[in-house]
Amino acid sequence: IQSGSDIFRVFCFFDENKLVVVGHGFQKKTQKTPEKELERAEKIKHEYYEEKKLNKSK
Description:
This protein is of the alpha+beta class. Helix content is about 40%, strand content about 40%.
């Protein structure tokens, strides 16, 4: 996503091919995505599914 001269990357994923879940975004400063941002995206996705699993068992 570009806003003026700033470029942002937004991480999202599909839940059961029905819902787009937006995890987080960050401002890009280089071509390569920082490893910490990839790890953060994976953590958010994992936490989402864990929370969903807990809510189903209630």
